[in-house]
Amino acid sequence: MSSWRALLRGDPLPWLLEKRDPAVRAMALRNILDRTSRDPEMREAHSRAMTSPPMSTILRQQTTDGRWNGAPNMYGPKYTGAHWSMLLLTEYGVDGADGRVRRAARRILDDLASGEAGMAWAVDRDHGVSCFFGNVVRYVAGAGYGSDPRLEPLVQRLVRDAKKFDAACHINDDQPCAWGYARLVWGLAALPEAARTREVERAIRRGAEFLLTYRPDRGDQRFQPYGTSYLWRQLSFPLFYQADVLFVLRALDAAGAIDDTRAQPSIAWLLSRQDERGRWGGRAPYSDRMPSKVDASKWVTLQAITLLKHAFPGAD
């Protein structure tokens, strides 16, 4: 099997390792060059990432009660409240053991359990909004609370959504939803081994199977919310509850299904989008509402190469 490096038209690593983008650099060292926390260069990069934008900008806006921007619940303001901030921090590679991250995860779990999360429009329904619940499971697990009893109702909801409803959602006219399934898989796959019960594993496999029958590279609209979304064939970073071709592939990778032959058309589509330097152009469609600007192209390139490394390990 060819190495992932042979699939690149150029070498983007020097660009990804630039010190002026410490979060990208830290994740490239870890995900692409396999550096561990014992590596001095990795430790230095991670420390700088935690104390530099975009992570420092977000963390600085957290209040002592674990919320953000003085908002009374986790969902608001949209794209800058606690839920959105935790999503961004997780994508940026935040240290899940950081006290501020753990405090936010505890607050969100408490608010959801007490009904103070401002999510009655989702929680009071018996199914649906798998995108929201999958994201919560992902970042709460990343903060070390993947086996917390307060998370179990959310996990069971996702299991039920997969088993009985195929991630159907009222936002998608109560039809199965690829956005919801991608985030459902993304969340459950982040659970620690102790919380990966057989029913969780079955839900992940069911979600992966659904996504593998779907052709996002063709703009297949059968299971899309809001009709045909322009995001599907646009490489974007960050995304929140949305999904595109790259994110679907990332979810399949998290589920351990990236080597399925049915993922190959979407991988081929992704490969065709790189430029002669081995880079991918990314867009940040929600940048005007985010607390800190990022280079979307660097993040998309980092994610694409990480995916290729897993799909085509070959011989480095």
Question: Can you describe this structure?
Answer:
Helix content is 48%, strand content 0%. By secondary structure, it is an all-alpha fold. The chain has one domain (61-311): Glycosyltransferase, CATH 1.50.10.20. Helix 9 (152-165) crosses helix 11 (198-212). The protein is globular and about 50 Å long.
List the helices and strands in order: HHHHHHHHHHHHHH
List the quaternary state of the chains.
Answer: single chain
CATH topology: Glycosyltransferase
Total helices: the number is 14
Query: Would you tell me the structural class of the helices and strands?
Result: mainly alpha
Radius of gyration: 19 Å
Unreliable parts: none
Helix content: 40-55%
User: Sheet with the most strands?
Assistant: none
- Domains (count): 1
The CATH top-level class label? Mainly Alpha
- N- to C-terminal separation? 11 Å
Quick check: average pLDDT? Answer: 93
What CATH architecture label applies? Answer: Alpha/alpha barrel
Give the total of beta strands: 0
Please report which band the strand proportion falls in: under 5%, 5-15%, 15-25%, 25-35%, 35-45% or over 45%.
under 5%
Choose one word for the global shape. Answer: globular
Summarize the structure.
The chain is mostly helical and 316 residues long.
Please specify the SSE layout and strand pairing.
Blueprint: H1 13-16, H2 22-31, H3 40-50, H4 55-60, H5 82-91, H6 99-114, H7 120-123, H8 130-145, H9 152-165, H10 178-188, H11 198-212, H12 245-254, H13 264-272, H14 296-311
